[in-house]
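Tokens in:
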């Protein structure tokens, strides 16, 4: 190890050839296998003498990689898949080869400068002030948690008699909000949504006022979801922001999936009100064509976050020089410069290319909804607000959905696991991949 031999050079060519091939060609869908099954084929890979680079790579490419579902396959419409641009993926190789440290300005100034420009683009699209800023963290779960911790610290400064802290959000909010509440040991007030699935400002206001009037519990943050993960529904951001701020409560917008579409003029107005956010998140690894994993976490007043998240230790004191250190803004210290692949692609292609790609995925989603509407056996759950198309198959039980989905993957046609809505099984297409064509949708619908 730690010697650049001819063998290393040969392996480098193999690795690059594999990566190039992966970038160039449509990936196979592939699928999971059991651990026992994999063990029977590859055995124990960790040995005292090592397998050798060529052998280990071969094992990965021929067996292990094939036991992973390709998230960028055009007919993988499950959960929220991914579709990194070629440039973003290529630059991920550079990040991997460069031993960049993204935790502090001192060590990572150039990389952090670039990441901050990418954050600025998102922040400007949201209409936040120029003083806004933040950091790329691992994912929306960590982004939400980090923002909520700052929100609670702010509330603690103002309210000394609260016996419990409470997060207010809709019943459709992402599971990571409850996860954050568990980590923070706070409660969650789930406010019912209307028939359109949206959390509205007035029902939120009413729920908060009732809680404050009848208990010593105190809402320290309101979380609006802008693009629910299951159906893509955008809460009433304007009404929610006003309700929060009229009560001097922090307003956080969870846009892990949906806020990516801030760059699409055709839907931009749906996000009106986001400019009032005290913090927001959006995952470039979801719908902004970046590889896993990167969540943009942005604060209106980043110095509030710094006061909460900055770590203090004798060996770190040299870093407290007032420079912008990403570690100061989230629950983390050491960090990969995980925003750089996104920055590179954005810088190289320009923001217009992002707008075009985003509008394209929206067009395909609306066309998919039209096909569902025209299909004799299918029924839309709701009109798609963004790029998630959810629908039911008439006459099917949960088992039918499951069997259909398993067969779809087994036949290597697509990956569309069933979801549910109001206790009923549904199917959903999450269309974030510009390679997904309407013909891909037709292939899937023909099997329903
Ligand atoms: C995906 C998602 C999250 C969680 O993000 P991760 O990157 O998976 O941790 C949070 N909120 C919403 C609305 C999401 O769609």
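Residues out:
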């Amino acid at each position: 190890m730690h010697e650049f031999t001819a063998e290393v050079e040969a392996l480098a060519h193999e690795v690059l050839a594999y990566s190039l091939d992966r970038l160039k060609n449509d990936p196979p869908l592939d699928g999971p296998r059991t651990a026992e099954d994999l063990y029977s084929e590859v055995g124990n890979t960790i040995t005292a003498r090592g397998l050798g680079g060529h052998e280990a790579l071969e094992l990965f490419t021929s067996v292990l990689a094939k036991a992973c579902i390709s998230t960028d396959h055009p007919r993988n419409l499950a959960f929220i898949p991914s579709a990194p641009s070629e440039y973003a993926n290529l630059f991920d190789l550079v990040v991997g080869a460069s031993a960049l440290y993204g935790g502090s300005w001192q060590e990572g100034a150039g990389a952090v400068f670039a990441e901050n420009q990418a954050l600025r683009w998102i922040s400007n699209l949201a209409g936040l002030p120029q003083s806004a800023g933040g950091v790329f963290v691992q994912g929306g779960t960590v982004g939400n948690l980090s923002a909520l911790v700052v929100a609670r610290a702010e509330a603690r400064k103002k309210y000394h008699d609260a016996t419990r802290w409470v997060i207010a959000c809709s019943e459709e909010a992402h599971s990571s909000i409850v996860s954050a509440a568990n980590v923070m040991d706070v409660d969650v007030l789930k406010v019912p949504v209307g028939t359109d699935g949206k959390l509205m400002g007035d029902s939120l206001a009413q729920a908060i006022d009732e809680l404050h009037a009848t208990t010593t519990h105190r809402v320290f943050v309101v979380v609006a979801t802008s693009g629910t993960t299951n159906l893509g529904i955008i809460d009433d951001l304007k009404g929610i922001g006003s309700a929060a701020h009229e009560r001097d409560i922090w307003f956080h917008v969870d846009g892990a999936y949906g806020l990516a579409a801030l760059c699409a003029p055709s839907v931009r107005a749906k996000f009106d009100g986001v400019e009032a956010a005290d913090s927001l998140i959006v995952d470039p690894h979801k719908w902004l064509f970046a590889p896993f994993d990167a969540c943009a976490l942005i604060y209106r007043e980043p110095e509030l976050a710094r006061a909460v998240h900055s770590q203090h230790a004798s060996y770190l004191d040299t870093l407290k020089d007032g420079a912008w250190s990403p570690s100061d803004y989230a629950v983390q210290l050491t960090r990969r410069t995980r925003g750089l692949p996104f920055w590179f692609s954005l810088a190289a292609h320009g923001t217009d290319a992002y707008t075009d790609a985003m509008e394209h995925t929206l067009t395909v989603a609306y066309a998919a909804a039209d096909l569902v509407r025209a299909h004799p056996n299918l029924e839309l759950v709701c009109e798609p607000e963004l790029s998630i198309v959810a629908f039911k198959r008439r006459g099917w039980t949960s088992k039918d959905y499951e069997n259909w989905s398993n067969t779809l993957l087994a036949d290597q046609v697509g990956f569309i696991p069933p979801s549910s809505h109001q206790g009923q099984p549904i199917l959903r297409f999450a269309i974030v991949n510009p390679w997904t064509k309407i013909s891909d949708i037709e292939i899937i619908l023909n099997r329903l």
